[in-house]
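Below is how a single chain appears once it has passed through the pipeline. First comes the sequence as given, then the structure the pipeline wrote out for it. We keep one example in the README because the format questions we get most often are answered faster by looking than by reading.
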Amino acid sequence: MNKRLLALFVLGLTTATTACAITPAMQKKYERSGCTQMSELNGCDINKSYQWNRDHGFIENGNSPQNRHHRHGEQQQNTADRDNRDNAGIDGKFSGNYVAKFANGQRSVDIHVEDSGVYVNGNEVRDVNTYKDTMTFRVGYATYTIKTNGRGSWNDSDAGNAGKIVRE
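Resulting structure:
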C-alpha cells in the first residue's frame, strides 16, 4: 500500500512540475522589443520598443531580416507614443547626463534626462515630478532630486544609502 501511494505521489509530482516554455504573451513582448532572454539580463527592456532598445545599445545586430520586420512595425507605434506623450514638464531645464554617487564617491547609477523622459541605467522612469527648479522621481525605494544647477541628492530608504547627484 505504501509503495503504491509513494508511486502515485512521485508520478503526481513529476507531472505537476513539468517545465513550461515562454508563454505566448511573453513571446510577443520579446518579439516587439527585439530582446532575447540573454540581452534582457544585460538591460534590454521587454516592455520597451525595438527602436528604444536599439538606440540604447541593447540590440547589436540591426540588419537581420527578422529585426527589419520589427523595426518597421515599431516605427509606427513610436510615432503614436510620441504624439500621446507630454514631456513631463522637463522642457530642457534638466536635460543632460548625471551620475548618482554614494557618500564615498563610488558611482551608484547613471541618469539620462531628455525632454521626452528620464532614464536610470537605461530604464525609463514613469513618474517624474517637476516644480520650478527641482525634479524628483523614484526608482524602487530610492528617491532622486535634481536641481536646475546640475546638482542633487538621492536617498534609498530601504538600503539606508544616500549620496550626491552631479552633472556629467
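The longest strand covers residues 107-114.

See the next section for the split statistics.
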